[in-house]
Structures are given as C-alpha cells and as structure tokens.
C-alpha cells in the first residue's frame, strides 16, 4: 500500500506539501496541488489522519464544551457546528459539563490539553484565567459563545439589547402592563444571561416611563413546564394580571401561551407573548420572537476557528482578546397584538 512518502516522491514535493494539498489547505500552488493529486490517484493513496498529524502537528478535530446537551439551543448549535466541521474535513469531540466541578476540572486540565484537539469551542462556558492559561501553554485557541472573555476570542449576541428589543416591541403596541419571565440565575452562572435579558426589559420600561413592578418579574428554568407554572400564577391574578409577557426563551414562551389558554385567555387578543431564540417550534406556536439565528452562530463559530487554525502566526498568539458581535432580529408572528381595550 502506498504511503505519503511514495506520493511525495512521485510528485517531487515534500510530505508536508502532500498533506496540505490533499486536505485542501492554502499555501500550496495550483501546480503542486495538481501534481500531488495526480500522484495520489496513480498510487491509489488515501490520506490517513496519522500521516496528517505527523506532517502538520494537527488532528483536524475540534473540542466542543457545553453545560448541557439536552436543551434546544445547544442541540441546534451543535448540529450546525458539526455540519460545518464535517464539510471542512474536521471531526468534533463533545465534552458535557453537566457532571459538575469535578468533571469540568478533568476536561480542562486533562482532555482538552491532550494533543487530540486543535482548538476549543466553549458554548455558554467561560474559561477561568487558570483554564485559559493552560490552553495558552498548549497553543490551543478557544472561542467562547455567549459572552465576553478577558484574554480570549468570543462570539457574542447582546442579550441585554435582545431583551430590550422584545420589550420595546410590546411597548410599541401600546402595552403598559408587561411582565418578564427570566431564567434562574443558576441556569447560566458563566455569562449571567438571565439577568442581562431582564436588564434589557427594565431598560425598555424605564425609557418608556413605565414602572418596574416586582410582581411582574418571575424566574423559571428555561423549560416549558416551569414557565407554565409561573405564567399561570401571573395571568390568574385577578388584580395584577399583565396584558403582555416577555419570556427570556421561546420554550418558556410556549409555557406562557399554554398557561393563558388553560385559563381561557386568547393569545394575542387577551395577552401577548414574545420570546427569544426562534426555536424550531416557534412557527407552530405562531410565536413572535427575537431571532438569534442559533444555527448561524454555529456555522460562524466554526468559520472563525478554522480561519485561526490557518493563520501561520497562530502559535505566537493562540488566544487574544477579540469580540465578534452577533446580531439578532425581531421576527413578528401571531402571538403579539395591541392590548385589550379593557384591562382585566
């Protein structure tokens, strides 16, 4: 069976050039690439991962770290990232942090430092200064998704701005009795996302001269079931029921819609509901939402990382502080409308 050395000899190039040419990398002339491809075809050579690693020091494998794998955002992001990596000839190794601090310690201090991953995607996970220092020592770039990182690159949607956009939409329709179901603080201790979206809600109310009332702010765990319970209590209040609810995620908005219907209320005739995400089921629920284009984030994150890995000077600066902004957009469907003429 022909090896990489045989292809290099027949093509008259180095083994490193063979690896770059057959992996589609830049920095190979069209003439050299054609010679390598012709030699490989003549010899029936199929590039092996071990040969590529030997020639380049890379494994064509990206480590992805997530706090959960059973929630829609993370599943949708992972689906997109994996698809983009496969198209570029890369593998993906998934690390789940749901096992707690001991599991995180093992992942950041052992698994990610082995030579089998070239870079790290940290989704809703902020590496500590010590974890980042270890990655720097091993020359492994990391890209964080969901919030700013001191000393590292990040892809960030402005959660506070998204919360304000959702609330401003309700205010523009004429609502003044607006509630917010935000996430439990423990659900995102890395980037404080639940509070950021709630802060956007508060910003919008303050700008409109509306009072922020404690009984119109509640927390749930980003699940339909938890938000259903919270929304039912809010909407069932005979004296202080809101005419609109901004939920920090679409799944919680689904729960709010179901709670309203179980109380005999019509959405949006009696109560408007808006979320954030553009979940796959949001169209079914006719949910107005702030579309954060989750799958687009996955593809963009892979693009950023692979461009970094192609940088010849990467080892001199594996991690530097740089933020890539990600925009969100209002997607209006049938769950929001002007408030009823008579407040309940």
Write the layout of secondary structure elements.
Blueprint: H1 4-11, H2 15-22, H3 30-43, H4 49-56, E1 61-66, H5 72-87, E2 91-96, H6 101-109, E3 119-123, H7 129-137, E4 142-145, E5 153-157, H8 159-172, E6 178-183, H9 193-207, E7 217-220, H10 224-235, E8 244-247, H11 250-262, E9 272-277, E10 288-291, H12 294-309, E11 322-326, E12 329-331
Parallel strand pairs: 1-2, 1-3, 3-4, 4-5, 5-11, 6-7, 6-8, 8-9, 9-10
Antiparallel strand pairs: 10-12
Helix pairs in contact: 1-2, 1-3, 2-3, 2-4, 5-12, 8-9, 10-11
Task: Please provide a written account of the structure.
- By secondary structure, this protein is an alpha/beta fold.
- The protein has 3 domains: 4-56, 434 Repressor (Amino-terminal Domain); 61-157 and 294-327, Rossmann fold (3-Layer(aba) Sandwich); 159-292, Response regulator (Rossmann fold, 3-Layer(aba) Sandwich), CATH 3.40.50.2300.
- The chain has 12 helices and 12 strands.
- The strands form 2 sheets. A 6-stranded parallel beta sheet has the order 2-1-3-4-5-11, sandwiched between helices.
- Helix 7 (129-137) links the parallel strand 3 and strand 4.
- Helix 10 (224-235) packs across helix 11 (250-262).
- The longest helix is centred in the first third of the chain and has 16 residues, at 72-87.
- The chain is elongated, with a radius of gyration of 25 Å.
- The N and C termini lie far apart (80 Å).
